[in-house]
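ARCHIVE CARD
Drawer: 12
Card no.: 0347
Subject: one protein chain, sequence and derived structure
Cross-reference: see card 0346
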Amino acid sequence: MQRRLICPFFRRAFGWCVPIGGLAGLVGLGGAEFRLPVLMHGIGFETKSAVLLNLTVSLVTLPFAMISRSGAVSLVAVVRHLPEVAGLALGGMASAVFDVGWSADSVSGWFN
């Protein structure tokens, strides 16, 4: 027997994921810049919840972006710039983790 996932946000979220993913892919970003307004205004999350969800999705997006783009450039070319690549990757992930923790601990009045 098949069970359906019932979520009040599913249809709106799914309707927005294709344009956000396409637009983010065209400009080479992870989509966080486009997700936050959609989470708040298009789907209806409160500001603090939308920020936390957006940062969490960004944290998950970074490793998957590295994996999916690994075939675009030869490994030899990347190894020469490994300190820079590692610094950018670790800095992005560390800032996402820090921001999620900071946002969770901050005063909710700041976001409204």
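Annotation on reverse: The chain has one domain: 10-111. Residues 10-111 form one domain.
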